[in-house]
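Continuing from the previous page of notes. For each protein in this section, the sequence appears first, followed by its C-alpha cells. Read the first protein now.
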Amino acid sequence: MLKKALGYFSVLEKVLWCSSVVLIITAFIMFDRENLLTLFASIIGVTSLIFNAKGNPFGQILMIIFSFLYGIISFSCFYYGEMITYLGMTMPMAVFALVAWLRNPYKGKKSEVKVNSISVKESLFLLLLTVFVTFVFYFILDYFNTANMFFSTLSVSTSFIAAYLTFRRSPYFALVYAANDVVLIILWIMASFIKISYIGVVICFVVFLINDLYGFVSWLQMEKRQKN
C-alpha cells in the first residue's frame, strides 16, 4: 500500500512536498517554537495543495481541516477578515467543492476530477458576485475593526473567486489562490512587525504560493490530457 501511495506522486511532486515541509518546520524552529497549531496547520495545508494539484478530492478534505485551523490562528492575530473568510466562506466552499469533485470523476476514476471550464457569461456573473461579496464583507470587517483593511478585503475577493473556481473545477482556481497567497504574504509580513513568530506564517504562504503555481500548471496539463 505504501509503495502504491508513493508511486502515485511524481518525483517532482515528492521533492516539492518534502521541500515544502522542511521549509515550514525550519521556519517554525527559527521563529516560533511554541505555536504547534500553526505548524500543524501549515503541513496540512501544503499537503492539501499537492493532492489538489492532481485533482484528488482528498485535497479538499484536508483544505476543510486547514481552513478551520487557519481561522483559529487568524483570530489570535485579530485578523478577523481572514477568520471570517476561511470559516464562513473557504471552509463551506471546500465542502461544496468536495461534493462536486466526487460527483465528477474523470472516467469513473475517484482519485481524479474531471476538469471543467466556465463560459464568458459565467465569468461575468462571478465578477458581479465577487463585487457584491466584497462589498458586504467590507462592512463586516470594518465593524470588527479588522487590521490592515485594504489587504484583508482584497483577501476576501481573491479567496471567493478561488473557492468558486475550485467548486466549478476550473484550472484557474490555483492561479487565483496564488494571487491570494501574495496578499496573505503581505498581511502576515505586517503582522510579523508586531510579533516575530509570524514570520513562520509568511514562509508558510510563500511555500503555498509555489505549490499553487505548480497546481495551476498541473491542471493545465491534466485538462490537455483529458481532452486528448
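Done with the first. The second protein uses the same format. Note its length before scrolling.
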Amino acid sequence: MWKCRILLALGAAALLPAAVPGTSPQDPVDAARFILVGDTGTGDERARTVAAQIRRTAEAARVSHVFLLGDNVYERGEARFIAGKFLDVYRGVLSLGVRIHAALGNHDVVPCEEAGRRPVPRDETAYALSSECEVDAHLATPEFGYRDGFRYYSIEIPGSRSPEEPLAEVFVLDSNTLGKDDTKIEDGTDEPQLRWIAEALRASRARWKVVAMHGTMYTPTRCQWLGFICRDDDEVLRSELEPIFIEHGVDAVFQGHQHLYARLRPQRGIRYFVTGAGGKKPDSARDDARTVRREDRGAFNHFVYVQVTEHRFGYCAIDAEGEIRDRGSFGRGDPADGEFDGEPCSP
C-alpha cells in the first residue's frame, strides 16, 4: 500500500523521462560525469537549496547520475517521509532524466534489527521488517535507484562519446551490515557483501573504480556537545574493506555520515572524500594530518561533481550557492593531485 500511495500521490512515472543527459555527440571530450552527495534527507530548506544547485549543475554539465550516500530519509527512514524528504526535493533533478542511485545510511535503518538469516541476504530480508523498520520501502522506490531492489550493487557509466564502454563504475555498498562500530549484524559480518564487492571489482571493465557508501573508513574527527561526543574513522570497517579495495584497484571512495566536506590525502594509493552535508546543518572538522587542511573546516552544505576521462579523474566540491570550494584531478598512480579546470569547475 505504501508504494501505491507514493506513486499515485506524486505521479512518479512523470519523473522518469526517457532522455539521458551526458551523451552529447558534440562533446569535445569523451567523459563520464556524475555527482555524489550525502545526508540529504531532511526535506528542509538546506536540502532543497543543495538539490536545486545539483539540478543547475547537472543541466549545465550534462551529468548522467547522482549518487546519494545514505541518510536519505531522516530521522528513522519512515516510508511516509520518502515523498516529502526525497521525491519532492529531487523532483527537479529527476525531471532532467538524471538517474539517482542511493546507498542506505544508518538513519535509513535506525529502527531495524537484523533478521538473523545466514548467509546474510542481499535484499531487504537481511533486516527484520516491521512497522518501524521500513527498509523495504526504500529498496522498492524506483527513484532511489536500488538496482534490482538490492542493498548493494554497481552502476557502469559510459563515456559521452563511447556509450558501449564504461569509463567509470560506481560500487554502492550497504555499510550498515558490515563490520563497524554500530553494525546491525550481531554475530560475524555480511560475508556475501564482502565476496560480492571483491568479485565485482575484479570483473569490472571500467577505467575508474569508485565506491559510494555511508560509513567512514577515513575521515577527520568532528565533535558535538562541547566535544563530549566525537566521530572519526571506523577502523573495523576499514579492516574489512581496505584490503579488498587495494587488491582490486579502487581509485576513489566517497563517504557520508560526517556532516561536512573533507578530502584526504591519498591513503595507500586511494583517494577518500567525505561529503555528508547535502541537507543536514554542517559541522566542523578538526585538523588532521591526513586531511587537506581547510580554513572553513568543511562546514558548508555541498555536493561533489566528478568528471572522468580515460586518463584523468577530476572533481570539485560545489556549495549550495554554486561556489567552487575545492577542486583537483589525478591520473592513475599520481602521488598528489593537480589542477582541474573543466566545466563547471573552472576558477
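What the second structure shows: The radius of gyration is 19 Å. Helices lie at 2-10, 45-61, 82-87, 91-95, 135-140, 191-203, 235-247. We return to this in next week's lecture.
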